[in-house]
User: What shape does this take?
Amino acid sequence: MEIQVLFSLPLIIASFFAVFMPVFDAILKKNKQIIFLFTLLNFLLVIVADIFIFASPEFFTGVLKSGLENSDFGKFLSDAVSLGGYTSFFDLLFAIAGILTLFAAKDYLKKESYELKEFYSLVSFSFAGMLFIAHANNLLILFLGIELMSISFFVLSGFFRNNILSIEASLKYFILGAFATGFLIFGFAMLYGATGSLELKVIAQKISFNQVTPIYFALAIGLIFVGLAFKASTFPFHQWAPDVYTGAPTVVTGFMSTAGKTAAFAAFIVITKAIFLSNLVIDNATVNPPVIAITRNSREILAIIAALTMLVGNITALMQTNVKRMLAFSSVAHAGYILLGIVSNNSNGWSGIVFYAFAYVFMQIGAFVIVSLIEKENGSNLNLSDYNGLSKSHPFLSASMAIFMFSLVGLPPFAGFFGKYYLFLSVIQSGYLWLALVAVIASIISIYFYIGLIINMYFKEKEGEPLTVQCKTSGISIILSLIGVIFLGIFPSLLMNPLLNLFK
Amino acid sequence: MYNIVWLIPLLPLIGFIFLGLVGKKLKSESLIGTIGSATVGISFLIAFLMFLKMLSTPLEAPVIVNVYKWISAGYFSINIAYQIDQLSILYTMIVTGVGFLIHIYSIGYMHGDRGFFRFFAYLNLFIFMMLNLVLANNFLLTFLGWEGVGLSSYLLIGFWYDRKFQGIRIIWTGHAANKAFIMNRIGDFGFLIAMFMIFVNFGTLEYTELHNILVSNTISYQYSSAIGIITILLFLAATGKSAQIPLAVWLPDAMAGPTPVSALIHAATMVTAGIFLVARNSLLFALAPSTMNVIAVIGISTAFFAATIGTVQNGIKKVLAYSTVSQLGFMFAALGVGAYTAAVFHVMMHAFFKGLLFLGAGSVMHGMHNEEDIKKMGGLQKYMPITYKTFYVASLAIAGIPLFAGFFSKDEIMWQTYNHGSAIAWFVLALSAFMTAFYMFRLVNLVFHKEERFDHKHIHPHESPKTMTIPLIILSVLSALGGFLGIPYILGFWFSHNPNFLDNFLEPVFKDANVVLGFSENHQLGGSEYLFMLISVTIALFSIWTAYKWYYYDDKWSVPRKLVLKFKGIYKLLWNKYFVDEVYFTTIVDPLITSSREGLWKFFDVKIIDGLVNGLASITTFFGNQVRKIQTGFAQTYAIVMLAGAIILISWLFFGL
Assistant: This one.
């Protein structure tokens, strides 16, 4: 197989399924099982393709690390998308998140009597969108990816169409999302105006040679950041997130708050890798052209946003008694942690982001899957007190939940610890010690509510009847998440080494 | 021999996994107990054999045994590797040896508990984590153990979660567990930042490598501010784990856990992790004289304040808890003046006698239906003779009566404090030692002697079973004789040239730190040391005599009663532990919670945002009306915030050009 074809396989597979899923849907009228399997196949094929990519000799050493220009097919693609390199890890990440969500969704939707086939199509659409975000090499492709993902999410959050909360979440998300998109697209236009190109590679070149119009460039960065910060739910653009995450179906929340958020950060990486000058250039700059001032200022701004996001997310989560809402606020805080990697603006930071994203997908989806199992009709049974005595009635669920909580807190030897560790270290290395201090303080605050849940599960007695839980396919998600959380904690370098290599 | 060191932590891990997975199905308590204890016992044997080997062929440099590469990421690589040297092997023997005895004891103590298997699984987990902490060859692995022991301590404090427990804002054991965990995490903040700073400054997290870097540049690193900050942060971590001021308040509440847990984790092993951390980085600390002073001051004040609280408490475990805090203060005082060996010596002796005291207290409570109030005991001497005798030995040891363990170690600390510190420091420690002997013998008299003040109808005191008394006897032998490991020069030099075994043994570990501190090899044999020794013995004896006079020869306890009436204010202060908990709650915890609820959530979301919206009413009316038609009205406020944020962000960039 042509190497370029192999490297573009994940995109081809995802696009194929996204396009044809509605067709399958129409052909296989009543058979939900097959649609479910098709979606699963979509994710599995992407993973298999990625394994072949990782195994190919060109992956680390070959031309594809830098570009694809040596063939017609490659040239055609390289204007639009970048293949290979770190982007392949994002494919893997999104596919894993998809699989975890899929297994949990089957139980959950059946329980809530909403097992409609559209769900699977929508997940496939958003999946394709995410892949295009991570692979984008062109502002238009990036925008298409973001919109494809976002619009699927708008619909998914309103998927319980008879549930008022779900509908409200969907509308709120849609209106505010449209508002944010306005900023984003305007920013892209400004960036085009400033540099004269939509291609990120060209844009990066122009910036490094200082061939930009500073005013448009500054405006562009500001507008783009607003748009992306909204998608990543960082302060002060985060307020939609708790409402939407609480109102949306729980498995959708799990997917949106992990894969969706990671995709937003993938967009951040794609953009900032192009428009930020490298730390080396900034540190050694003798003259002070506007481009350098802009990069410096935007990193300052991002640092402040990150600090506030971590603090606000965690402190607000302290007061929540609804577990889903607590996790929603804490997911805002996690966006703050991940933003540290963008602030560092170096390979350690970027690899830290991807590592953290992996850890986050496992622990957060794992937690949401358990929430979805405990939940009852119409969003009841979500309070902290509903988890009382869970360790007695469901020792496996509560032990898994405890491990996810410990990982979210950042206790070693779970994956979350190394995620935080790499990110914190990377900001210290790029000179933001104060930010690392804030991050550690924020994560200390977060202990209180994560541990609170464990107390309810282990140290309190359930009053009334013990809970009954229907756990069939969800168990697979939980076990996979557990494996991920523990494996990445014990062998972090298996993931970290290739990432560092690829970001160099 | 040394390369099988990984077996030492592995065995308790296997025990934990096995008991955790299939423990519920094992019906026999003795089988569970045997598995739990055997794993730790075998680990002890391995450690002991290594110790013997170390004695026959002295180890000049630490042996590093790599297990596997944990992280290797170009700029940053960490092995799971264990470091065997005199310090780690000593700690390992304390952890597994005392741990083994307490496991055996728990078989009797936890008999019939519905969580029997869970208890042993947690204990094994604790031992595994503690061994990682002390055997690690790098900060990260130590940190893993550090967090792990915190976690298992958390699980064990809350083990009897359905029981009530009294404390400030604590009504049941879960709260106590929570408090311990959070206090510890504040200390961990110091550990994490220190770890980052060490890596950024020295490019390594391995102890031996860091040591080598420091040794080759002692001059340039002395007084460096980076080392000052790093050591202060590490010490912050130590104050959390070892319950020193300002993070001391969690330990007394940790007594909510079962008594063997208090003995093992909150007296003998985990709480000495802070001392280990400082001793492990002795050279680093030696290079930061100001940090050393802070450590000494904090240690001495903790020793003093905790001892004063101990004199008025009535809960048997509470007295012992404050005694532990106070004794840990002694150890930090020693570290602060650079007497590392004395600190480690006291860690060891304290593990023996304080472990014994807690197990004795457990035995008393076991025979008294979990009664903790010493005012409701008395006369137990005849019901539980073994518990009484062993408890008495431990009390003599902690009081510092010559030939018992505590005499040698405490005396060493006090002498070194005077020698390398100041007379005031010595004096404060001497006062604390006086109070130590007093509260211990107050305890002995109120619990075991004189009239029986308990309710004979409901309580029938009895001696504990053999599984509990045998560990007591072994520990009492160690408490009585253990001190001979570190005979002071001034006494020992009559017997042989250099009799202080422990000092010789640990010499390679602390050699470089001692050079930096300017301590010479030759120990001066001044007559003044005799004098100080004489003073401490007199203090101890006088204090014990006072306790007997007030509580034994006076049935009405008239002197203490009078004192309480006369010094009401002081008594109230001590009884309420200087109101530290209350102060923390009102100044830190409450404001945080209020600001979360009232500030960020209600105030920010509701008031500020709404206020903003109202203020900008004219601008937003159009927009708001459009939105309100299809929405609840909140999305518009969110949009306004976004807009405000966007304006700030963009103008910053725009005007920052």
The first helix of chain A runs from residue 3 to 27. Chain A has one domain: 2-502.
